[in-house]
Amino acid sequence: MTAKSLGGRITGWVSHGLVQVLLVVVALFWLVPTVGLLLSSLRSPKDIADSGWWTVFTEPAQLTVDSYDKLLHNGDITGSILNTVLITVPATVLVVAIAALAGYAFAWMEFPGRDWWFLAVVGLLVVPVQVALIPIAELFGRIGLFGSVLGVVLFHVGFGLPFAVFLLRNFFAEIPRELLEAARLDGAGELRLFLRVVLPLGAPAVASLGIFQFLWVWNDMLVALVFSDAGSQPVTVALQTQVRQFGSNIDVLAPGAFISMVIPLAVFFAFQRQFVSGVMAGAVK
């Protein structure tokens, strides 16, 4: 291998350095709204009305936790955060669990009409959420689920499963057949094969799916606006309601919006390694 010339090494170093600088600049611009919202949530309503959030750097005495204290005593916001957890966690767990089982069945089990059933699942991917809002709202109204947390969860599960099954089926299908046959020769049944072999190998894809589903449900407002009421509304709907009174409750709106944003960010960064592994594995396959 021919060694690079001095000019080539300098060019490579400069190019690499420019790329790093560009990435840092992009990351800083991406963080500006988050930092601004955080600092706004730590300021009093008077300070927010008088000046921009960047004045905190020259007047740090503006920082206070009074807004968060007021938020914790606001029953509408705290109740909506709890509702968001009660909606997001079951909707994520159910979609991941059901999709993992269905994906394994479509990938490695033989049953009548398997390919046709999978084509039906793929076909459901093109059905927009808006088409089903009114029919499912009427159905939930008849069976008493309209306006409840369970109704919102079931809607998210129903519309999250097609993509989840499609994703996990394709990932599981890439597992070497020889590995599964060796496990069967050792006496492993289908359930044990799924739990001990397929699921550990598919952990990156399962983690990626869990992150996607969690973020989608947590940030959803359309479904919640239609299917929830005042007692079951998530934080996105509660904040949208608070926006109508923006001038009088900015001290509650800012910390509530920051909490609504920081929780999915924390979940993403907590599972970032698994998410990247799943995306890279899918790209290689």
Task: Note the topology.
Blueprint: H1 6-41, H2 45-50, H3 66-72, H4 75-108, H5 114-124, H6 129-143, H7 149-172, H8 177-185, H9 190-201, H10 203-218, H11 222-227, H12 235-243, H13 250-270, H14 272-284
Helix pairs in contact: 1-13, 3-13, 4-7, 4-10, 4-12, 5-7, 7-10, 8-9, 10-13, 10-14, 12-13
What's the architecture of the largest domain in CATH terms? Orthogonal Bundle
Element-level helix/strand string: HHHHHHHHHHHHHH
Main beta sheet strand tally, sense and closure: none
CATH superfamily of the largest domain: MetI-like
CATH class of the largest domain: Mainly Alpha
Shape: globular
Mean pLDDT: 82
Beta-strand content estimate:
under 5%
Number of domains: 2
Q: Structural class of the secondary elements?
A: mainly alpha
Number of strands: 0
Share in helix: over 70%
What separation lies between the terminal Cα atoms? Answer: 31 Å
Q: Low-confidence runs (pLDDT<50, min 5 residues)?
A: 280-285
Count of helical segments?
Answer: 14
CATH level-3 fold name of the largest domain: MetI-like fold
Radius of gyration using CA atoms only: 24 Å
